[in-house]
């Protein structure tokens, strides 16, 4: 075991505190990563505050991890010491079910192992702890290579925000000739805009106000509308092939469904704790779909990183020190994030 420094919450309403956690000894297939940067995803906040389910504390969140390989197990072939690598939302899965075999470990029929707040049931049975820490030990198959040309700080958010938007954009065929809308311009939303634009789609941002319009257009959006303005819904009726909803809170699904053209899909990646409701007539008319999507598989995550390198894409970030995590959480909750906070792990004393 290796004792490493971390930042943890000890209760749903507590602030982060400096602590230490144990990382397992590296097994033959394990990689020890020295973490350099860890992104703050809104899912970290939902989890740390127990908004989705009851959580065991202390909890070290963090599933947007970028760092450098410090040590490898005797049978590791994919990574070597000094490699620039990343870890996303999963650190293991059963590898034998049909979804794992199809490269979609996020839908593992036996349950994937989350990077934090999970149980390493395919390994030592220990509770997993995430990336707000100096080191992590991960099976080599769940470690991604960060291509040259993407700095580690802007790469970190790609491991969740990047893949979570890339996967549905690909699955629902975003590309030239397709009109794609993105609801919510936060961590996921800004990556959806960049990726959708790079794929060749015509991208529209649907934000609550026009406050971030200049940013949205710079990120690659062709159009930008405020959803607080009822005219938006009249003007954009039946416009889009695909809408990606990244909002962390409950939205009025029906009003967004009305913006889909025939055969269009509204894909929810936002994960508010409350259920969303849908009026069936909005689905029946125009043969619309209301769907969901979770992160992406390991193979697709590697593909996404390659796509970002090819197109010169990384996240827009604000680097913070470990002492600023609580403030950053407040700012994310208040939508005061431009567009991802990334912890400089060197400051985790
Ligand atoms: P974020 O940075 O906080 O962005 C969410 C955006 O939603 C905000 O910037 C804001 O955009 C909008 N918003 C926030 N509160 C709102 C409200 N009350 N009503 C309407 N719009 C609101 O969060 P994130 O990290 O991108 O994560 C977004 C959601 O995706 C979270 O629920 C997270 O848990 C979930 N998630 C899901 C997956 C998956 O696999 N499906 C993966 C990662 C994250 P505007 O200011 O532009 O309106
Ligand atoms: Zn996330
Ligand atoms: Zn599986």
Overview of the molecule:
- This protein is of the alpha/beta class.
- It folds into two domains: 2-160 and 296-347, Alpha-Beta Complex (Quinone Oxidoreductase, Chain A, domain 1), CATH 3.90.180.10; 162-292, NAD(P)-binding Rossmann-like Domain (Rossmann fold).
- It is 24% helix and 26% strand.
- It has eleven helices and 17 strands.
- The chain has helices at 42-48, 98-101, 152-155, 161-171, 187-198, 213-219, 230-235, 253-257, 280-284, 298-311, 325-333; strands spanning 2-8, 17-23, 30-39, 65-72, 84-87, 90-92, 113-114, 135-139, 144-145, 179-183, 202-207, 223-226, 240-245, 260-268, 289-292, 317-320, 340-344.
- Strands 3, 4, 5, 8, 9, 16 and 17 form a seven-stranded mixed sheet that branches. Strands 12-11-10-13-14-15 form a six-stranded parallel sheet.
- Helix 8 (253-257) links the parallel strand 13 (240-245) and strand 14 (260-268).
- Helix 4 packs across helix 5 (187-198) and helix 4 crosses helix 10.
- The chain is globular, with a radius of gyration of 20 Å.
- The mean pLDDT is 98.
- Bound molecules: NADP nicotinamide-adenine-dinucleotide phosphate and zinc ion (ZN) (2 copies).
- Residues 93-94, 97, 99-100, 108-110 line the site of one zinc ion (ZN).
- One zinc ion (ZN) binds next to helix 2.
Summary of the model, kept short:
The protein has 349 residues and is of the alpha/beta class. It has helices spanning 42-48, 98-101, 152-155, 161-171, 187-198, 213-219, 230-235, 253-257, 280-284, 298-311, 325-333, and strands at residues 2-8, 17-23, 30-39, 65-72, 84-87, 90-92, 113-114, 135-139, 144-145, 179-183, 202-207, 223-226, 240-245, 260-268, 289-292, 317-320, 340-344. It folds into 2 domains: 2-160 and 296-347, Medium-chain alcohol dehydrogenases, catalytic domain (Quinone Oxidoreductase, Chain A, domain 1), CATH 3.90.180; 162-292, 3-Layer(aba) Sandwich (Rossmann fold), CATH 3.40.50.
